[in-house]
Amino acid sequence: MVYAYPRVSIEFCTQCKWNLRAAWYMQELLSTFGNGLGEVALLPSSAGTFIVTIIPEQDATPIVLWNRKDKGGFPDSKELKQLVRDVIQPNRDLGHVDKHNKNEKKTPTQEPHIESKADQEDDDACPNIN
C-alpha cells in the first residue's frame, strides 16, 4: 500500500461519544489544507482517548499535536490548524485564523482553551474503563 503524506490521525474514544468531534476536526483540516494533506484518518479507540498525531513524510517519527489527557481538554479548531500548519507549511499564513487582537500576542506557553465542563471529564467518564 502506498501512503500519501502528511498523514494526520485523530484517535478518539467511541464510548465517550467523541465521533462527531473527531469528524468535525477532520472536516476543518481538510477544508483548510485540502490536497496539502495526504490523509486524515479517524481511529476509533476507548479509555477516554483523544489524540491527534501527524506524520509529515515517509519514515518520519509521528508527532503528537494534541493529547486530551496531557492538555486537559480539546483544542479550538484554530489552534489545531495552527499546529498542523507549523509542521507541514510553517511559512503559510492562515488568514483570519492567524489574526489576533492587537493587544494580545499568543505564545506557545499559553494555557489551552477548555470548551466546557463535559470536555474536562476524566477517564472515569468513559463507561468501559476497568
UniProtKB/TrEMBL annotation:
Coiled coil: none annotated. The keyword Transmembrane helix does not apply. Pfam families: Rdx. Gene3D superfamilies: Glutaredoxin. Residues 120-130 have a biased composition (Acidic residues). Residues 90-130 are annotated as: Disordered. Keywords: Redox-active center. Residues 93-119 have a biased composition (Basic and acidic residues). It comes from the Eukaryota. InterPro entries: Selenoprotein_Rdx-typ, Thioredoxin-like_sf. This is Uncharacterized protein. It comes from Magnusiomyces paraingens.
